[in-house]
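Page 47, continued from p. 46.
Same chain as before, 174 aa.
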Amino acid sequence: LKQSNVEYKQEASSEFVVRTTKENVNNLVNAYLDKLLANTNHRYSVHLAEEVQLFGELPIFSTTVPLLIYFDPLVQENGDLALKLKSISVGQMRLPNKRIMQYVSNYLAVPEWVEIRPEEEEVYVYVSKMDVRSNFRVAFEKFDLENDEIAFKIEVPYRTLGIETIDDPMDTSE
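Result:
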């Protein structure tokens, strides 16, 4: 009988790659937004098509005006997602992109792991800082909307499963 490989006992986690579709991500993101915005006056949704689209309304004086933003997604080296502004419109108003992004930043409720960056004209999604109940860590690997190829890595810490790591019994370097 061969003893199991002790390498896993020295690692803190295992990593899996999950592939999905725009439709699945649309459903997940908008279900999350529905819950986040449930007891607020904020209304917006995200749709993945050839680019990332944000639809919503912004309050202007005593009314609301439609908001439409298009972003190009860029996966960062650490697995986070930068959404680079492609185009933006707020009703019929003509304002500089940075000014609209600043207003959006001040008004829209977003999760704590999402940052609206008006100066960079982007929305940065810190998936690396998402608080996932299972203690899994998530990172995007691929976000190709044109080909409907979205992949992310899930790192499963062994301690989440009650597995403790041990030192290598063969290691005599101490």
